[in-house]
Amino acid sequence: MLKKSFSIILNLFPRPLLIRLSYVARPILAFVLRGSKFTDPIDGKQFKTFLPYGYGTQRQNVLSPSTLSLERHRLLWLYLKQETDFFSKPAKLLHFAPEQAFYKRFKKMQHLEYTTTDLNSPLADVKADICNLPFANNSFDIIFCNHVLEHIPDDTKAMQELYRVLKPGGMGVFQIPQDLSREHTFEDNSITDPKKRAEIFGQYDHVRVYGLDYFDKLQAVGFNVNPVDYTATMSTETIKSYCLAKGELLPIVYK
Question: Which residues are bridge partners to 251 per DSSP?
């Protein structure tokens, strides 16, 4: 019943409305599902189960009831916490389509000059087109642009803009849904029907399925690219406890 309800809600309501509704539902879900089997590393809270998530075929036990983080959010948090100085070094951060799991936490960090941007998100400070950003060259030390590029028809132009506004020596994290069994990215601009897009690209508003050549595209723009399999450093028990996707690659880039 829970699986069916989530599928209906995700497909029925637009994303900005879902963000607003989640503020009401989150504390209730966190209370009902509290337990000790699974842990959200972002806030340290434990649950007997996580929630299902997905616009088409739903993934089971992936959405944290407290932070609403998914596998990719928890993986990035762990990487930043354990492998970088992100939580202590002063920096100018640009965050595209800011995720709820991070937004309030980043905003409270006094060492960050935090700017959020998106065309539609109610959490965005700056409403902007990623292909035509209103920021000067070399403006930001860090850029997070996660699960955005698969929505953008001209992703090369978007990547060029990301490169332009990142400072020399700066770091970016550009996560995308990626099919690691594909050597080449697949896209077809003639597919415009939302149902067909969901069937082929995995979600109604995606325009491509990225393959391993995603890293080559970033490199061609000028980035130094480091695909990190951070789950390879973890035990099976840790991966299960945090409900991570084993083998997911973190696209860490530098300018």
Answer: 227
Question: For the segment 10-38, what is each residue's pLDDT rounded down to a tens digit?
Answer: 454 444 444 454 455 666 776 677 778 99
* Cβ-contact 162, 222 below 8 angstroms: no
Torsion over CA: 191, 194, 200, 206 (sign): positive
Are 101 and 69 in contact by the 8 Å Cβ rule? The answer is yes
> What single string gives the DSSP state of each residue in 49-63?
-PEEE-SSSPEEEEE
| Band (53; pLDDT cuts 50, 70, 90) | confident
The conformation of residue 78, written as its DSSP 8-state character, comes to: H
Three-class DSSP category at 202:
coil
Could you tell me where the DSSP H helices lie in 97-176?
A: 100-108, 155-165
Spatial separation of the C-alpha atoms in residues 224 and 219, rounded to whole Å: 6
Rounded (5°) CA angle 200-201-207: 120
CA 11, 41, 107: angle at the middle one, nearest 5?
A: 75
Contact at 8 Å (CB) between 10 and 70? Answer: no
Antiparallel, parallel or unpaired: β 59-63 and 140-144: unpaired
Q: State pTM to two decimals.
A: 0.88
Average pLDDT, the chain: 89
Could you give the C-alpha distances from 210 to 52, 151, 199, 200, 201, in angstroms and in order?
A: 23, 11, 15, 12, 9
Separation of first and last alpha carbons in the chain: 47
